[in-house]
Design brief:
157 residues, alpha/beta, Glutaredoxin, five-stranded mixed sheet, two-stranded antiparallel sheet
């Protein structure tokens, strides 16, 4: 299964690193960004989380929440947040249902070895709960800035 622009956001509810829960229902009425990343505290994932955290004040000014999701548990997320002073919400999808619902669980091929894993993906969801913009196979440099510009454009229309 994979979502595309214009689709309703898949229903989800996940535990967060701060002991809370976050889901599609609780986010309804406001735009948000949900991004999927492979693993806490790895080089690319750390750079991506730091980039989104650095831009959090600008996302907040737009009223756009940013949520990072991986299969790591909430204890790992909490450690990751503290180690890198992250300010965005980190949600845990240990069973991978939400990751699969967004189409971010894919077959990867590294050095000829195939395995299943999380494809770095980002989704901008509008206040009506529709997927406004999709980024797949994300390259980290400049990505958070690109998502911020798309959020500004969404809110300007």
């Amino acid at each position: 299964m994979s979502v595309k622009e214009g689709d309703l956001v898949p229903d989800f509810e996940l535990p967060t690193d701060d002991g809370g829960r976050i889901g599609a229902a609780s986010l309804r009425g406001k735009p948000f960004v949900i991004y999927f990343y492979p693993k806490d505290d790895t080089p690319g994932c750390t750079k991506e989380a730091i980039s989104f955290s650095c831009l959090k004040p600008q996302f907040d000014a737009l009223g756009v929440r940013v949520i990072g999701v991986s299969k790591d548990d909430t204890a790992s997320h909490e450690k990751f947040r503290k180690k890198h002073d992250l300010s965005i919400t980190l949600a845990s999808d240990e069973e991978g249902r939400t990751i699969e619902a967004f189409g971010a669980w894919v077959e990867k091929n590294m050095y000829g070895k195939k395995s299943m894993g999380i494809e770095r993906s980002t989704f901008l969801v509008d206040a009506d709960g529709r997927i406004h913009k999709v980024w797949r196979k994300v390259k980290v440099p400049g990505h958070a800035e690109e998502v911020l510009e798309a959020a500004k454009a969404l809110l300007a229309r």
